[in-house]
Amino acid sequence: MDYEVLPPSPGKHNMENYEEFCKNFSWENVEKEFSWYTTGKVNIAYEAIDRWVDEKNKGNDAAILYSDTEKEVTVTFAQLKEQTNKFANVLTKLGIKKGDRVFLFIPRSPEMLIAFAGIVKTGAIAGPLFEAFMEEAVKDRMLDSEAVAIVTTVGQKSRIKKDELPNLKHVIVIGADENNLESLEVSYEKEMAEASADFTPVWLTREDPMFLLYTSGSTGKPKGVLHTHNIMVGQYFTMRIAHDVQENDVFWCTADPGWVTGVSYSVWGPWLVGKATIIRGGRFSAEDWYATLEKYGVTVWYSAPTAFRMLAAAGDEVVKKYNLSSLRHITSVGEPLNPEVIIWAKRVFDVRIHETWFMTETGVNMVCCYACEPIRVGSMCKPIPGVEAAITDDEGNVLPPMQMGNLSLKKGWPGMMVEIWKNPEKYNEYFQNDPWYVSGDQAFMDEDGYIWFQGRNDDVIKTAGERVGPFEVESKLVEHPAVAEAGVIGKPDEVRGNIIKAFIALAPGYTWSDELDKELKQFVKLGLAAHAAPKEIEVRDKLPKTRSGKIMRRVLKAQEMGLPVGDLSTLDD
Ligand code: ATP
Ligand code: MG
User: Fold this and answer.
1) What's the pLDDT at 495?
2) Strands, sheet with 125-128, edge to edge from the N-terminal-most edge strand
3) Numbered ranges of CATH 3.40.50.12780 in the chain
4) Low pLDDT (below 70) residues in the chain
5) Distance in Å, CA 52 to ligand 2 centroid
6) Distance CA 555, CA 564 (A)
7) Which pLDDT does position 374 carry in this prediction?
8) Which CATH class is domain 74-224?
9) Which of 212, 215, 375, 384 should be mutated for ligand 1, with most atoms under 8 A from CB?
10) Does domain 1-32+230-385 have CATH number 3.40.50.150?
11) Second-level CATH architecture of 388-448
């Protein structure tokens, strides 16, 4: 195999030697970091918020650093404790109790986080929704989960179809005119002003549910994934080991709390290690993000390939305007990271980007590249200590190195989902090959245990007896300067089974021509393999993506074949 190797990052790390660390690892040692280990009283909100005030003398430290182009807000841990207590009292007054589903439909803001943690303090189950969801997406999820309440804003409440939600009893509206409330509505500000700042978290067990989150909908209808308070063990641990967050670090995760990365790493992860979460409101722009990195002196930055690709496309001149010398560790998630992008980051930031693979169902990072280890560029490296990963065949047999198969994890880590809401058959599908949790992604492992992502099950292309992962072909295509983004599918063909078809968006300044078409096909053929070269290339202004930034290959495929495109609730317009 042909790949570049980047040596370990300089400096001291929470994990200095992966092999040694794995050998001596036990989850129990991680559990000792939590108060409940000695008190037996469990609630993630206590560990993430109250503890810093009650036990650790960090009440004046920042817990939320929010900014947008108009304002800046800092919320300390002491203020956060008080605000979340108040909100828990507001909910209790409305009759919300343990196990009830309470949804969040609020743009990224301090209120979003306060409401989230307030719900969790009462023992209710929080249901984060992405702020840009339209009516149907909101309705589907609330109906499926029989939610009794939702917290929202004046700007968004019209997208909640109250009449079609028989279980809905309360709509808590931020920014409402309290003299002009509609049916079911209460004013967030009014209720908060009247609520007591004293609240003892409802004590639970680690197995009690904490949040219900719907998947991104890349492969079909989103699934409602239920997670418990025990996810805190995995969140805490991966903040330390995958993101290497240490005493003096400033951590920024750019993900929206409407997706699992946002829940685990923009909200709970930072708090569990006693850090502020940085929330940047407003729309993406390269300048704005670089300015945010500079302003807070971010040292550890967690983002996604689609964002890195946009930053790279904005050009080196923009980066040079900012002092980003504080950056020491970058992590990426959501889609495979094209080698081209890692090389770009190394050049402009002189820092490696570390892959972190996981899914809504796994709750926390599972397969990652680590600061202390070399990176084989294009691989997502190795499972986190405490988790065993294997490539299995469809019967659950472990495959030898270099064979593509199901990326599987030995079940039972803290943070593994406990239920697909009201869908036990779907849940059981993941666990058919006991003891393996079968992810639905295809990968292979090399002789040294590095894992190489190939694509999702449905996306892997069978062509002329070969199996081709779309990711490899896409990565090769974006290496070419004319290609900004690529999505590759198998198009049914009588002779070959499938042919490889690529959809691309051109980089600024390029125009499509027969010569470029030939050149790109040749580029993949010579750079990768003849059988992997696209037979057809189609140019699009942009590729269909989920709102969390993932290319929706199933939409490209359905369009290509003239079939119904299926659930589009998470499609970005
Ligand atoms: P749905 O399950 O509804 O089709 P989804 O799988 O996109 O949507 P998520 O749980 O948000 O929903 O995403 C998990 C998936 O994202 C993984 O199964 C994998 O395909 C992809 N993914 C996440 N991180 C990485 C990564 N570092 N490299 C490659 N792929 C990744
Ligand atoms: Mg999925």
Assistant:
1) 83
2) 185-187, 170-174, 149-153, 101-105, 125-128, 209-214, 224-228, 419-420
3) 1-32+230-385
4) none
5) 35
6) 9
7) 98
8) alpha beta
9) 215
10) no
11) Roll (2.30)
